[in-house]
Amino acid sequence: MSAELLPVPGLIEATEPPEYRGVARDAVRLLVTDRAARTHRDARFFDLPSFLRDGDLLVVNDSATIPAAIPALHADGEGLTLHVATKIDTRIWLTEPRGDVRLGEELMLPGGGSAVMIAPVEPETPRVWYTWFQLPRPMHAYLERFGEPIRYGYVSKRIPLREYQTIFARRPGSSEMPSAARPFTARVVAALRERGVELATLTLHCGVASFEAPERPATEWFAVPGATAEAVNAARRAGRRVIAVGTTVLRALESAVVEGDVVTASGWTDLVIDDSHVLRTADGLLTGFHGVTATHQSLLRAFADRSIIEEAYDLAAAHAYRAHEFGDVHLLV
Description:
Strand content: 25-35%
CATH superfamily of the largest domain: QueA-like
Shape: globular
Order of helices and strands: EEEEEEEEEEEHEHEEHEHEEEEHHEE
Strand order of the largest sheet: 3-2-21-19-15-4-13-14-18
CATH class of the largest domain: Alpha Beta
Largest sheet: 9 strands, mixed
Number of domains: 2
Radius of gyration: 20 Å
């Protein structure tokens, strides 16, 4: 993530996509944790269909990553990078300045654009700001011309935007990659369908909140379409498993529950899922590996108790799993 990262003891940081190491996307490591049996299995991602059942429903995020990092200048000419996050309206967005800024300061942007730092979202921790933009073209078109993907601190080189996309990416809007679905390929999807596994999509545009540090995730925009809501409800009524592909999917689903059912919904969610949260929509989760002090760990404990998660991470470390967005993945069922 874009915030300063905490180390992941025992795990290897993924400093580049697996393809850059000569490993196919769907050949990354897959750790499968069976919560009921308290077992953990070491596999490859292309083995995923063998761990699922006929009738299982996978819900994926179709948000596409945008080139959200743009260069900026203070009035004195000193440079910084501005990470564009969540859209509030046409000209006001949440941003993360990668450098010190002042209340009301105007930053100069490429192509004659400018950005005024209105106010921090949380004054006590002024990392994310409300920002007013004056641009020569709409934001997404502007970013396509002048932006680049947010570069994670542990990544060793510049990586093109296409490497930050998943096979399901359709709706541009995520500042940072919804990375849990990155290992999916056409052959894995075909094998899942052949096994009788269903797929449904929703949208949650990822902001710039860090899940590596112990901080609350930012408010994010999501949309659960009617077809997906009905697919989830039908699966649960029939006793079939619903598996969220990524914490973004889980957050969107849990934000769309009314009287026990998932409903068609769109808007903003500030839901925080932790070990006190009672899950109402998903029986399983596919996710990456993250820092042991991260809020991500508390979310995992909504699925399984601390000892099971610790066992899984110990096994992942013993097998040299890779952490973070370009790393390996963990299936809890």
